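To whoever picks this up:

The parser on our side crashed when reading a file containing two proteins. I've narrowed it down to the boundary between the first structure block and the second sequence. Both blocks are reproduced below exactly, byte for byte. First block:
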Amino acid sequence: MGKKGRIFSGMRPTGRLHLGNYLGALSAWVELQDDYECFFGIVDWHALTTGYEETEIIRENVREMAIDWLSAGLDPERCLIFRQSDVKEHAELHLLLSMITPLSWLERCPTYKEQLAQLSEKDIRTYGFLGYPVLMAADILVYKADTVPVGEDQLPHLELAREIVRRFNYLYRPTFPEPQAKLTPYPVLPGLDGRKMSKSYGNVILMAEEPEETRRKVASMITDPQRARRKDPGNPEVCSVFALHKIFNLEETEGIDVDCRRAGIGCVDCKKRLADKLVEYLAPIHERRRIWAKDPDAVEDLLAAGAAKAREAAAVTMAEVRHAMGM
């Protein structure tokens, strides 16, 4: 049976991946690799947009991210896994698209102003940071991907990519499809402190976390702040532990809900049950990670092989782009 279409998606190598990354993106990628022609890029140039002063950690982060992807279940026999900077066509297309992208399109992007405010301690008023969405568009369009799995926060960037496609196709000749979003199915995952699970908040459970560390972190999670004593009834709807039960322990969720509301279960026991489920859930991921972590050279070889195949597809696109532009 033929593939439904071509997908591109990527992640910045800024550190180890956590459960929010897994449920928000990786688990969906694993399911998509049989139905779509998938290109998954570790976008190390994008890491420079906010971390250009810390380049010494990028190579190691790339390798660790590749291992996280493989441990999640991505299969290099069923998808392409590669490092963005190994495919120079990304940079060439980014340059050409930047020539036709109005500055006002980039300045109005909502995530641009939001991140300037959130990362005020960093000097990121650079062209690279402002032009991040153009590089993202190039990442997608260099493979003529028609489908992009994204979270809702990335929708403005994808709409900008479609605007760039329409402008290019109008100025020159129809060359690119307009990529469509495929929203990831899971809501925002709460972290240890109840806020969104995020490395910047330091409230994450890593995919690679050892079982004892997972148990320790779950034991530290914030529960219903109004439940001061074991005998007090709780409210599961305001508890981040219960929110994770609803994802990782669905079969027991109804009983835990009832028991919590009538003080039939304490927070300590509730956390232990969640920790058990998380350890069980992560076990196959850890097993695959141990295999790949033993052989870093094999990981590098895999990335190189993926980049070689990605370059073949990208070269075809760039030949069409140069022809369309008369260059």
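<<boundary where parser fails>>
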Amino acid sequence: MKNPVISLGLSTPGIFILRHFKKYGIDVYGIDSNPKELGFYSRFGIKSVCPDPEFKGEEFRDYLIQFGKNFGVKPVLIPSSDKFVLPLNDYAKELSEYFLFTMPENDILRRLTSKRFSYELAVKHGFPAPKTCFANNVRELENFVREVEFPCILKPEFPESWRSGFLEEFCGGEKVIIVNSADEIFEKYDTIRKYDDRVIVQEIIQGEDKNLHYFVSYVDRNQNCLGSFTGIKERISPVHFGSASYVNIIYNEELENISVKWLKEMKFWGASGIEVKKDPRDNQFKLIEVNPRFGLWDEVGIRFGIDVAMMCYKELTGETQPGVVNKKINIRWISIHRDIRSSAEYVSKGILSPVEILKSYFDFPIYVGDMKWSDPKLTFHLIKSLIRGLFRKIFRKTKNN
């Protein structure tokens, strides 16, 4: 009997897992705490709603254990969303009785999920990073603003901290807050720390979004990098501080070398993605964030032999596999429903022209990550959502005029 796969998360990367393993005759399940997540519209996999792992960790653990008792063999867990990473780390001992999953030692998943500790790990191992202040008090903040160039950003140590309640409203739903002066930093800091005292202040690395690069890899438990690839984020959603909507996959040896070295020094194993931005001041790649899980466009690797999800599955089920090296990659990845929205923002802000964006859609080969005719219900849902969003925008503009 083949070990089934459970995708922890049903956003875009989770949908790929549902589609992908079914092709190999492997039973696939998907769980998420948000019943409106995109994966519930997919025809692939068996889906169910679970307790929210961020706010109901113990309930989620008990739910997952009960779920695991239904199988004759241990299912393979593949987290494809941030919110499932920490529960795996925190309840690893209990869950390992029923499931197979990658788990680095020394609490490394919790440390990489934290913006604070991932920065400290970068500094410790010599991975370049932007100037950062973990604002424990006003005096530390005062010292920081004397040295840094504006604008800066304020962001949480853990992303979920600002995803609900007052702080979600205060941030306008954005991942970070941009500040343009020392006075603005102190004003925003005073407001935020009443609700979350783990505030991070960081310099913004200037330059266009095309300076954002990403490194995808699978490192096994013996610290062998079985496969990796790099990409340039041509467009992101939202602009400047979002996640990818259009990516140019191209080999970058420098980024590969520093990333693999860092992962090995931390004794990390599993699937991960490292986001960096090239700083025009010193031409160095500097850390933005780490995703210690299967990521948004990791799936494109199947087009050139670097199947990160399958590498994870094979290692956990005891199948030996050689490493894969491919330095002649030339392909684009796109999430259409995300990119149409981000493209409209790039055009409205005068960053890109409609002609430039249209031309990129014919820059073949292109791998489409979301809309597929083999998954019609999800595809039509995405098209309907785009049309609905367009009409809402037109209505708001007409109403304001």
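After patching the parser it read the second block fine. The domain at 131-203 is CATH 3.30.1490 (Dna Ligase; domain 1). The mean pLDDT is 92.
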